[in-house]
Specification:
There is one protein chain. This protein is mostly helical. The protein has one domain. It has 14 helices and three strands. Strands 1-2-3 form a three-stranded antiparallel sheet. Helix 6 packs antiparallel against helix 7. The longest helix has 32 residues. The radius of gyration is 22 Å and the shape is globular.
Length: 386
């Protein structure tokens, strides 16, 4: 009996969703550091500049992940209002000239002197956290129009709208999609959700088509080859990178596209560098790791003890997985160009910290949800002793 129990516990530990998630994240992160060094080595006079800064951010991200893996999640609910206020205040401050830093026509960062914070990366987590807290403490209001639909929708619209003004259309759309998905998972009535989603989608399409820059990106996406010298230049170079890499790649560090041919090679388009240097099989392996992470997270959700933790984990998982899917879709030419990083691999400290916070929550709940309630444990001990 003892042997069978030990074997069962051992197998359960090996195949626990939290273990799978952690293995996938560690693999992607270590791999990302290697590829980032290759992608950024030719981007300036100091070949170690980006990798050095990324390693510093990685240390911060790991510390944040460890914190969220150890903290009692239920104790964080009392900070829901401060998190909401700070998130919205940050999104407002970044729009103010002199406070927000403008890069390539977008005002998305706050310069703290020793670092730059991309506020929207943390605001995404703030949105998920406040929605999880709200529905976790107002479950009776879920079927109602005002309490279950209008108030949460206004919150989603406020977050997405402020990010939209930066402008950051991709992150705004991501917040909207994840936010309304959480409303659906919470049990908000479809008679409210469906018209709202259709209206929000129509408004987003209208905004894209009436903005010359965004409309140009969509038109270029429709004819990549015809616009390869202008609007689709970056995407065309990414496609060349994948074609050059073939199945096995040209070798790590031997790629040519990051030598000023492919803009943003070390950030949004690092997946193309992977395709050129390491080939199809490795790029497919990266996709498989993200897929495994997502599937393990979905299986993990079945054990959620309450609405708050369920939505918190689901929202974090959706943010991570959807961002990865959109990035890979953009770089491979399946989606119009959007400025979203590839989690754990692209250069960028704010996104790395935010992603590790999500991982910390996933690991935290994996440990907590696997433990049976104390009353059941005591009952089982009595049965064994009897």
């Amino acid at each position: 009996m003892a042997t069978r129990t030990a074997e069962g516990l051992s197998l359960a530990g090996i195949f626990r969703p939290g273990v799978v998630i952690l293995v996938c994240v560690v693999s992607l992160t270590v791999f990302g550091v290697s590829v980032l060094f290759s992608a950024s080595a030719h981007s300036g006079a100091d070949p170690y500049y980006f990798i050095r800064r990324q390693l510093i951010w990685l240390a911060v991200a790991v510390a944040v992940g460890v914190f969220f893996s150890l903290v009692k999640l239920d104790s964080l609910k009392r900070f829901s209002v401060p998190v909401l206020v700070v998130s919205l205040a940050g999104l407002i401050l970044v729009l103010i000239p002199g406070i927000g830093v403008e890069v390539n026509g977008a005002r998305r960062w706050i310069d703290l002197g020793f670092m730059r914070l991309q506020v929207s990366e943390f605001a995404k987590l703030g949105l998920v956290f406040t929605l999880a807290c709200y529905f976790g403490t107002h479950q009776r209001a879920i079927p109602r129009f005002w309490g279950g639909f209008v108030l949460p929708s206004l919150g989603i619209g406020l977050f997405a709208g402020l990010i939209f003004l930066e402008p950051d259309y991709g992150t705004a759309a991501l917040c909207g999609a994840v936010g309304f998905t959480l409303l659906f998972l919470a049990g908000v009535r479809l008679v409210y959700l469906v018209p709202a989603c259709l209206a929000a989608s129509a408004a987003f399409v209208f905004a894209v088509l009436t903005n010359p820059l965004r409309r140009g990106r969509v038109m270029s996406f429709m004819d990549i080859e015809g616009n390869r010298g202008e609007g689709a230049y970056q995407l065309w170079q990414a496609i060349i990178a994948f074609g050059t890499g073939g199945t096995h790649g040209v070798g790590l560090g031997n790629g040519r596209q990051q030598m000023a041919f492919l803009p943003e090679a070390h950030t949004d388009f690092i997946f193309a560098v992977i395709g050129e240097e390491l080939g199809f099989f490795v790029t497919a392996g990266v996709l498989v790791l993200f897929l495994l992470l997502f599937v393990a997270g979905i299986l993990h959700l079945r054990r959620a003890p309450n609405m708050y933790q369920y939505l918190l984990v689901a929202g974090g998982l959706l943010l991570l997985s959807t961002q990865a899917l959109i990035n890979m879709g953009v770089v491979t030419g399946c989606l119009p160009t959007k400025g979203l990083s590839l989690p754990f691999i692209s250069y960028g400290g704010s996104n790395l910290v935010a992603m590790f916070a999500i991982v910390g929550i996933l690991v935290n709940t994996s440990l907590a949800w696997s433990k049976p309630p104390m009353r059941h444990t005591k009952r089982k001990l009595k049965e064994i002793s009897a």
